[in-house]
Amino acid sequence: IGAALSEPRDAIEDIIEPYLIQRGFVQRTPRGRVLTQHAYRHLGLPEPEPAPVAA
Q1: Helix (H/G/I), strand (E/B), else coil: 26
Q2: 19 Cβ partners below 8 Å, 6+ apart?
Q3: Cα 10 to chain center, whole Å?
Q4: What is the pTM of this model?
Q5: 29-38 in b/e burial notation, b at 16+ Cβ within 10 A?
Q6: CA distance 42 to 35
Q7: Are 37 and 50 in contact (CB under 8 A)?
Q8: What is the mean pLDDT of residues 19-27?
Q9: Neighbours of 26 (CB within 10 A)
Q10: Can you tell me whether residue 29 is helix, strand or coil?
Q11: Alpha-helical regions (H) of 1-55
């Protein structure tokens, strides 16, 4: 995202990411950041199939 917006990583983490989390577009998980159902609907993209859970 930083490269696409020509913004430093700190700006993304300190300003943009909290806004996206607050608006419900991004969630932080133990595996990293993921888009929410709300984000996919907003962008008009099909939601990916959930990954199978390893036993």
Answers
A1: strand
A2: none
A3: 16
A4: 0.72
A5: eeeeeebbee
A6: 11
A7: no
A8: 95
A9: 19
A10: strand
A11: 2-5, 9-11, 17-22, 37-43
